[in-house]
Inositol 2-dehydrogenase
Amino acid sequence: MLEIALIGAGRIGQIHGRNIAAHPGAKLRWVTDVNAEAAGKLASALGAQSGTDARKAIEDPAVKAVAICSSTDTHAEMIELAAKAGKAIFCEKPIDLSLERVDQCLATVRKAGVTMMIGFNRRFDASFAALHEGVRSGKIGKLETLIVTSRDPGPPPIGYIKVSGGLFRDMMIHDFDIVSWILGEMPTEVYATASNLVDPEIGKAGDIDTAMVVLKTKSGAIAQISNSRRAVYGYDQRIEAFGSKGMLQAGNQVANTVTFSGEPGVVGEKPLHFFLERYDAAYRTELQHFIDCVLGKAKPATSIEDGRNALALAEAAVQSLKSGVPVKV
Amino acid sequence: MLEIALIGAGRIGQIHGRNIAAHPGAKLRWVTDVNAEAAGKLASALGAQSGTDARKAIEDPAVKAVAICSSTDTHAEMIELAAKAGKAIFCEKPIDLSLERVDQCLATVRKAGVTMMIGFNRRFDASFAALHEGVRSGKIGKLETLIVTSRDPGPPPIGYIKVSGGLFRDMMIHDFDIVSWILGEMPTEVYATASNLVDPEIGKAGDIDTAMVVLKTKSGAIAQISNSRRAVYGYDQRIEAFGSKGMLQAGNQVANTVTFSGEPGVVGEKPLHFFLERYDAAYRTELQHFIDCVLGKAKPATSIEDGRNALALAEAAVQSLKSGVPVKV
Amino acid sequence: MLEIALIGAGRIGQIHGRNIAAHPGAKLRWVTDVNAEAAGKLASALGAQSGTDARKAIEDPAVKAVAICSSTDTHAEMIELAAKAGKAIFCEKPIDLSLERVDQCLATVRKAGVTMMIGFNRRFDASFAALHEGVRSGKIGKLETLIVTSRDPGPPPIGYIKVSGGLFRDMMIHDFDIVSWILGEMPTEVYATASNLVDPEIGKAGDIDTAMVVLKTKSGAIAQISNSRRAVYGYDQRIEAFGSKGMLQAGNQVANTVTFSGEPGVVGEKPLHFFLERYDAAYRTELQHFIDCVLGKAKPATSIEDGRNALALAEAAVQSLKSGVPVKV
Amino acid sequence: MLEIALIGAGRIGQIHGRNIAAHPGAKLRWVTDVNAEAAGKLASALGAQSGTDARKAIEDPAVKAVAICSSTDTHAEMIELAAKAGKAIFCEKPIDLSLERVDQCLATVRKAGVTMMIGFNRRFDASFAALHEGVRSGKIGKLETLIVTSRDPGPPPIGYIKVSGGLFRDMMIHDFDIVSWILGEMPTEVYATASNLVDPEIGKAGDIDTAMVVLKTKSGAIAQISNSRRAVYGYDQRIEAFGSKGMLQAGNQVANTVTFSGEPGVVGEKPLHFFLERYDAAYRTELQHFIDCVLGKAKPATSIEDGRNALALAEAAVQSLKSGVPVKV
């Protein structure tokens, strides 16, 4: 039984905590959070110990793996604590908002030789995984154009936006990872354009809420990502890959397959509301993969280098938006 | 240039009249109708002569083919006039409401040796034709189950229902033809059940408006037809063919492919409203086929025997509904 | 913590056993099976005791509820044992192949006053539940026509067919339940027709493999069920409800939403392969509902009367098929 | 009866010629082409006079309108001839490859006060028109993101590519028009990136075959166009408009609605093969609109200014591709 410490009892921490507790091969030993009440409540529901001292949990000899779900600004420190304690690491994205800091972590983890995996949950979505497999297996021949659509149902609180690092580092970072993953190569040029259309408060906070990014690779493949912080019809997460032998499209998921034909037309369900619903199964698959990695049965599909690459693309997008011209990566 | 006389200037007569006038290989020479004004108006718009005397038009030596679109009770007489005058015949369904009278017509047409085709327009619908071709070419192996859905957007006037011969002879006759055509064999047993749910006036007129019929063949294939005189979302015309190697489904057509994703869900267009819209292209293809038949380039895909068979199935359904038990054909 | 005894460690027993073990409010105390090895293996994986003596498990005072997943011929006896021991009962369908025996059970359960629920899992499918809710809430006005399609990917072993009670009692019994549930009234007339098209061995065993049944209610609504023991494209489970204000359709589920556009056309995933995949979530919801019933939070959505009614319709279908005419219920 | 001269008997000239000949309110009086045989063949089939002298046809007093379908390098001259002769003008896109020359034409046409319409056929497509109507009527609130996909089934001959003005002026010009039309405002910034992936010969001819362009407007709306000269599954023409209240998507059209469920999955038809099939109805609607404009019943939906604007965007894309940075319009 693999004993795991969970650092952070917020929204995403609760998901991973529950999945760990329900996993037949894992045991949730610790839940820590800066908010003692939040940690205590989750730990109690899942039969774990709780506390506010992450270091104590991480260094507990019974703990073999650490799931880092605390706020972004603490990730790097937790990674270093865990690496030095020789624990396997699962860390939510992004690793840090500074590429330099990420590189320090990368060095520490490599030196420690511990297993580390980044929480790019979308790679574990059944539809995205099937599209990736189709592209990689040559089903559409040479990949030429990749179009990624990613829209949240609504914006996060302004308070979050102020500390998130901005849309590119916080939200599009998932899409940057998806693009590199499906392309099978790191883009070499990034052009970003963006607007503040959803909520003027976001603009006042220095961020944008509607963005379009074009990426190009050495081989000439062109990718495009469009993001919006608001989609009234739900969480819109789609990928279209076009190549010399055809096209693969991965669509949204719905709660049920019922359609109504009546006066207003033929009406189907909206996409599942948000990431908790859409990626519910993906989070379970992701955790299973992490456990397999810790047990030596698999190698992390989402490595610390992947986390670094996605952040590098986000940085390039930030610079392109500022300068108004494409940026080399 | 094939000169054609059109008998009947009502709704379906206007469709065929316009298609004849627009056809590069045909000329509409006559439009006749018991209503002189209706005939005159259509003839004038299409550059034809008009009158109330169908015989005169049929026997005009320049006329080589006759399109019979008058009321059902006149079909048999027109067929006989045209057959005796040696003209090729296109006749709207049903030939007559009496099987005996149909058989007389059949004998007359055979004796005269003229080309005759029944207006089973649905066979010329691109989707139904593709499904038929798929079944006949063995794409789903041995055909085992056939499910035909056919619902009108709304009931015809009560006056029409009183003289139509009832739902089985007037409306489901198309589906009986479709079923025999796709099965590739004449069903040998018919069970019908029905209700009066749409409009009590239809019940008072001695008819039903909601019906379900099960047909069985010697080979064990089972077909099912469901009809309703009302569907608030439009004209609902679908076929599902299931066999040992798979399933083919032919769906409705829409005016455009636009979908709206918003608060109410994902909303697509309703099916095209009624037969004029849905079978617009089919009517043109049907006329082309008739002209090809007259010119000796093709044999009628919808023969007078097909018209007889469909009526025989309708008769069996009427009897089954009366008796409450299945009827052998 | 609700302690449950599982009777039967076969395919369906394993599903329920795993769901009980994973449920935060339940504990799997016993697994029994006539096959000691099967019981032991499942019990060991799920942390339960095992044995071959169902009575011992049922009468264990710690056990508050019993899940009966053994072979059909033992259901009635298990129900009676559990009822007499005052335990809540979950029983897989059918209760028994004899209506008389079902009525005995019904009397015993009523007398004992215990909670009892039948495993009509399809009612807990998200799509079917949404369609049911739509119909019951009046979204399509008055329900007029109901069309249920239910095809298995392939036939069960001939040995199973010989003892199953036949297609109507074993397979279509689910659809009979669905039809009554959505109609909201018990049909009063049943007409069945069927063929042996899939495998001649099924015919030799005295059963049919392709069936179509028409049911009618007092209110004039007409339902139709079609079954096949084989569908090469997977498990085909669909419902179409048509009424005065529109139509609701519940379709199949797919493993992912990816489509491929290429030389062969636009290709989507096949339906999920069989009931284990399609109803995976429904089984969990069903168990949750059972536990809620035992805890007094809900009343069984699938009562023992529902089990009786479905069997009565199956009996009527068997008689109709034999006699060739519709049968009153 | 409106008499029309057709200039150019090539692929697109044949379409317009046939539609004019079949139109009840129009008569095709002339067909001219530099290739006398081509002109003669089409004229003879459609009952018109033929010749190689466009001026003669344009200046024929019976001719009230001119349809210019000759090669792009002759458009400007034909427009000027027709404008000076006081004839209504329908001209295929692009007007000319030089913006300066287009402006001269514009001035001449304005001075002459004749009706002029550009052949942006896609605006008359039922799906695109419905999407446009939805956006303009506020169905999705404020338009924020517009995504246009436009892929040809295969590249034109290299000879054509050499004189076409390149992908942006020849192919994407349609999409530039669509974008401006749906945005309801002219974009102010254009960024283009492109590759040569389909055929090296295209690269040798100095052109690209895979392109992605991002356009931005004053209001902050962002549009994106992706083009490919080859799509093995057919002509791929889609639009997605996203706004504050939802999303509208216009998809491809198929020859029929049949789907096959079998071993390979659920297979539907490919998109209609190419523009002749996809825009067949749009060409008829477009001609009807032109005739309405000539008769004073409507104002050209696709004005000469629209033609100029689309070319200006193409020019900007060409410059952006060369310079590697966004270009202001």
